[in-house]
Structures are given as C-alpha cells and as structure tokens.
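Appendix B. One record, verbatim.
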Amino acid sequence: MKNVIKIFYFGLSITCFNCGLGEWDVTLYEQKIEGTSKVIYEYDAWGGRDSHSSGIVIIDSTKKFQVNSSKKIPISYFTEITNKTRIKAVKLKKAINNDSISLNPLKKENIEIKDISLEIEHYEQYNGYSDLGCILNTYSFQTFKETKDSLFLYGLKKEFGNNLAGKTSIGFKKGNIKLITDSIGKLNRLEIKELIIKRGNKRKYKKGTAEITERIKNSPVVCLRRYHFKPLIEINRDDFTDYGIFKRK
C-alpha cells in the first residue's frame, strides 16, 4: 500500500510541475521607465497542460521575472508616457451590454508600487460594429521620427483598413507601441494601440449574415484601435529609444 501511495504522489508532482508550478515558455517585452531601475514587462506565458498567463507587471530590472511571483496590474492602455513617480492608464473589460456603454469611467483606482503611483480608470469596452474602425488596420511606412513623448510615421501606404484614409503621416503617443523584431533586432513591424472614447454610429447584424438589422446614431463607444505598421526600409530596434516603447527582452 505504501508503494502505491508513493507512486501516486510521484505522479502528482510530475503533473504539477507541468501545470504552472514549474517551467514556463515566456515571451517578454520590456519598456523602461526613465530615471528609475523599475521596468514595465508585458508578458505571455505558456506552461504544461496548456497553462496560460499574460499581463503587465512592474518590477525592478535587477530582479528576475517569474510568472508565479509577479503581481499583474490591471492595465489595458497607457494614457501617457510613464515616469518614475506616476503612471496613468486605462483598464478595459468586455461590456455586459453593448447598449449601455458609458464615456465616463466606471471607477478610478489608485495603486502604489513602492514609489510609483498608478492612476487607473476602468471602462466597459464596446464589442460590436461601428464607424469608428475599432479593428486591426495594416499599413506600411517609409520613415519615422521619435520625440520624448510621441512617434511619427511618414510615407504611409494602406494594406488593410480605412482608419488613416487619405493620410500619408500619423503620430501616436508613446506608451502603447511594441517593436516586433527578428533574432538580430531587425524590425518586422510596429504594433500600436489607440484608445477611442467617443460617440459613433453603431450597427447590428443578423447573426451569421451581412444583413443590418439596426442602426444607432451618435452612441457611446469605448474601444481599442490596433495598427500594424511594416517598414519599407531596414530599421533596427536600436534605432528607437527604450522609453515609451516595448522591446523584446
């Protein structure tokens, strides 16, 4: 009987090692905070038996990131470039009812992480169709210019989407920009999020068809526009600063 019990616990320990208490396959992106050793990590991790964890954490860069011991913070979007004393952000959650979206935050939350104050506004996210283009848009670009708080792209060419129709340049606030690079640091694309909190025209479709069943004008929408920008020239990760931009760790 004792041998049976030993075998059972041995098998259980192996199972637990593979279900999130052991090794993780982690994809980690880092955004540095100017004037401090603390950094922002955006991570996506997979463990055994399809265990999955993802999110954003703030830790000291001198410490090793660990999935199970790093406390996630509720952030979907940074509303301004981070600094060593204050971070302002928004957290979105899927709306229970798309018809009752509010342009005002549901609540405001303050979190202290040592000497950094996090100010987070919580909103419900609209998950329907509207004319505000809350979908993935893909463009190519020729050149860029980076300032302390923004990134500007020039020579835009459309691949998919109409959010930037007629524009040959665009600027984004830093904080929600990610560099997707290859193993030697060559840029494959920029991934950028843009927060939309405004009124727009919504539409509803008959399930499984393209038939519009209802149009709602001037209705509140809270959502994220997502962009992929592909360079037409060779650009490397070191051509960008480390602040306000996520880079592969």
